[in-house]
Prior knowledge:
Protein-Tyrosine Phosphatase, Chain A; 5 strands; alpha/beta
Amino acid sequence: MIDESYNANPASMAATIKSLGTERGIERRIAVLGPMRELGQHSESLHAALAPSLVEAQVDVLVLVGEDMRPLEDALGDRVQVTRARDAEQAADAVLAMLRPGDAVLVKASNSVGLSRVVERLTRELAECSI
């Protein structure tokens, strides 16, 4: 698990996605992404601009949290499998339902989105089972 749930801006988001793409010996790449905050009038285009990074990193499943991520989903089209989540709890449910041995999971968003709860729940529940 790559826990980057505590901050996000366009450069750090792209760099962390690239890092996920370099992980070796894994079955699937799962990214759980929430909005980058305080981007002003360019928010939609900056979110959409992450699409090439996700494709290049060969992300298999993308869990997008919140309506602010809609421009990214639109920019991706059908190039990456997308699951939508309303909030952190729903995102954790989605990841737990799909997670398999050998998966790598990246969680990244601005801290105010609260995706640290996804990391906490995954860590807790995975410690209780054998995935």
